[in-house]
Amino acid sequence: MTSNKKKVAVITRHAVSNYGSVLQSYALQKAIDSLGYECEIIDYIRNDEHYKNIADTLVKKSSWNKSPITRMVYKSIQSPEYIHMGKAFERYRNTLIKASDKRYSSLKELEDNPPEADIYCTGSDQVWGTIGNDDIDGAYFLTFAGKGKKKISYAASFGKTNTASNNAENITEWLSGYDCITVRESSAVKLINNLGIENVTQVLDPTLLLDKGQWSTLIKKDINDEYVLLYQLHSNPQMDNYAKEFAKKANLKLIRITPLFHRIFKSGKAVYLPDISTFLSYIKNAKYMITDSFHGTAFAINFNTPFIDILPGETKTRNQNILELTGLTGQILNDYSDFSFIDKKPDFTYANEKISEQRVKSINKLNEMLND
Questions:
Q1: In the prediction, which pLDDT does 312 show?
Q2: Averaged over 4-16, what is the pLDDT?
Q3: Cα dihedral: 159, 161, 165, 169 (round 10)
Q4: Sheet of strand 307-309: strand arrangement
Q5: 8 A C-beta contact, residue 78 and residue 62
Q6: Strand locations in 273-336 (E)
Q7: With 80 as the cut, is the pLDDT of residue 139 above it?
Q8: In angstroms, what CA-CA distances link 144 with 114, 126, 163, 177?
Q9: C-alpha span between 253 and 107 (Å, rounded)
């Protein structure tokens, strides 16, 4: 039977091998479906971001890119790990996300045979920043969508507070073709306004469109234990040491969630490549969470899990924005000798009210964009 629902095709970075990428894609799809549309994630995976090739991409940005020998050593060590991790996240995506039947690996493939849809949407996460081999990808600006087609964005992000000046002309042209633009960070609003484009609205990350109860439906079993949870994306020895000492002072075990095998040898008991249910359960039931992840922070807020946020360098604006919105900037760690968080757990009253208020506004804005 043919559906009478309008079809929305979303392009986002759904296939990066991390939990945030999968869960933000799932959440946006679920939100669009709940508004009475048929949502499909365009299965766009660039060759330089495919898990079989990611070691080749990353070695070019690493200190191992010195000679053919060092590059070969790096790839021989890292490639099997990335392939194993990529296959696991592919399984996780397949259980949660409805993707297009056709997989695309380049902008040209999208242009030659674009997915059919009534509305095209750029989804969330760092879609408008540099990707893979450090280029801006027109696919995430919907350049493949046919003329006259409706184009919108929901909670798109540049990832950083600025974009390279040599990309400004293209970005301005591409964004000018949108019917409506919403972004995730206030810094993105300013950046786009500075390009001469007005009427840009800030909305919640898709993961915050679903409340604690909705996310809990994905949890098969609650973790019944007392622990400090470490969810770390960026290499940071000081963060490792802090988490170890924090758990010791709190008289709790340290659990480290990691999709990377080589990190199982670091401090704490490693939970390696947990499935989505287990990942969410560990965050929901932690006594404390220490994280440098934006989505780790978002889920801690959603589940009201006491947390400490360690800002991740040049992409810290993502974390800062959600903490400023929710009045939880006091959870930022500014001194690695500060363990006062053990005795002063956050009051989530204001944060819950603010997220509930912004959730309604964000869903209404999404519905408005789809309906207009």
A1: 84
A2: 95
A3: 70
A4: 269-272, 253-258, 227-231, 288-291, 307-309
A5: no
A6: 288-291, 307-309
A7: yes
A8: 7, 19, 22, 11
A9: 47
Asked whether 92 and 77 are in contact (CB, 8 A), the reply is: no
* Cα–Cα distances in angstroms (integers) from residue 79 to residues 62, 64, 364, in the given order: 14, 14, 43
Contact 336, 308 (CB under 8 A): no
**Percent of the chain predicted with pLDDT > 90:** 77
Residues in the chain: 372
Q: Which residues contact 312 (CB under 8 A, 6 or more apart)?
A: 233, 234, 292, 293, 319
Q: So what's the pLDDT on residue 371?
A: 93
Can you tell me whether residue 130 is helix, strand or coil?
Answer: coil
DSSP-derived secondary structure letter, 55: H
Q: What would you measure as the largest C-alpha separation in the chain, in angstroms?
A: 62
Per residue in 355-369, pLDDT tens? 999 999 999 999 999
Q: What is the DSSP string of 194-233?
A: HTT---EEE---GGGGS-HHHHHTT-SS---S-EEEEE--
Q: Compute the distance between CA of residue 91 and CA of residue 114 in angstroms, rounded to an integer.
A: 25
Give Cα separations from 56 to 171, 229, 304, 348 (angstroms): 27, 32, 39, 43
Q: Is the pLDDT of residue 164 over 70?
A: no
For residue 318, report the phi and psi dihedrals to the nearest 5 degrees: -60, -50
